[in-house]
Amino acid sequence: MKRLKFLLFIFAFFFPFFCGMRGFFACDQSIVFDGGYRLLRGQIPYRDFCLPFGPVVLWIQAAFFIIFGVNYFAYLLHAAISNLVFTMVSFSLLRRACRDDLAVTVGTLLSSIFFYPQFGTPWFEQTGFFFSLLSLYLLWDDRFPFVAGLFQSLSILSKQNAGLLMLILLLPIAKRRYRFLLGLGTGLLIFAIWLLIFSSWTGFVRSVYDIPRTIGWERIGYLFNPARVRWILIGSPLRILVLIVSTISLVKGSEWPIPGLIAYHYFFALITDNQPENCLPYLGIIIGITIAHLLRRWRWSYLTLVLILMVLGMRSAYRRDVQDIFTHTTTFTPIGIGPWRPLRWGEPTPIWQLQVKRSDVIRLYHYLKGEDRPFFIFPDFTIFYGMVGKPPPQPLLFFDPGLTYYRSQNQVIDRMVLSALKRNRVELVIIEKISYFGTPKRMEDFPLTFRFVRERYRPEREFGIFIVLRRVR
């Protein structure tokens, strides 16, 4: 078993690293990279830039940048090490829960496939799932409930819905509940003190509550959308198989928290904009414990379904199905420049009717390095700030209407962006002709900023979808 455990952990480290370097979806994968880099440059969440979630994943990414430098390797390493630790904790939890070598092996392997490989790079939800697992692990045998509460506070401060939903599940299994809640309250209190002393309470309320609350209510409405429910339950062969094995786990009478974990997966998938494949972190624990409880005549039929599920999960991660744009990508070519290594660029990488070509990214990178001037890029490829080594000059971590800025009456945020561009003396503006949520539409949300850009900047170069404008002196 020791040799097999070692092989499982080796796989848990290298598989997400391999999946994560296949392609780049700027709309999602720039966010944590840019956020970690902002912290490295001395910017403070909520005070210096808007962030609709907790800052924990950005703190972790900044630590990786400090140790390994600002590059894509450090980005992938964060996800790979997180997946390894998650898998090791899942293994230990399964050993405690069932003491069945086959069940532990299968469950651990599934955990390593369905935690980070599906997304590939650091993300808010995965960080929330990670700390909730640590909390569940400690509460399983009623060990260190105060520390479990601290971990759960970190989960909430990674992604609110991920952490709060798991809190509902954990409370019934916390035998010394007051100590667990004391740890939770202590973690949140420390964060509140940090906000008051180092950050901004007003900025936090605006970023985390005031701006995104409309989207929050809309996503609760997803629960009553039959089309979305069908899409999550039976939208692909993998989802159908997950539904079947989850149903078997329920029917065969698994004890709490297994029914709660199954409900957590589906409820979380319903109220988030993630693909369902990215919302199954505890599938390995569910299936491992189910295998241990099944009678022999049921076990091998169930294992056959699980084996197929395992193959489909690996295929989904390998093909990057969670990021919609890689559906027709046929090759992944090493980008081969400086801090971008070991990223492999997907060909094609389509954004609606246009493509983002590897050669255009390389040419823009070399141009910006050669210019060595402050620049502003809009809206999605904010990863360029860290790659080029220039500070992000405006206060939005990403441009998402209703999430990071108001859908209507956005004058306050518009003025904040315009003021920051002037204050930081931005020399170059790079505008993406097309982006996943639409460039022209999002430019209309910032009329003051882009009127200033039209008046003060003139087009100078084009690199595929990227238009470079230079300030007129």
UniProtKB/TrEMBL annotation:
Record has Transmembrane as a keyword: yes
TM region positions: 6-25, 101-117, 147-174, 180-209, 229-250, 279-295, 301-318
Keywords noted in UniProt: Membrane, Transmembrane, Transmembrane helix
Organism annotation: candidate division WOR-3 bacterium
Domain of life: Bacteria
Stated name of the protein: Glycosyltransferase RgtA/B/C/D-like domain-containing protein
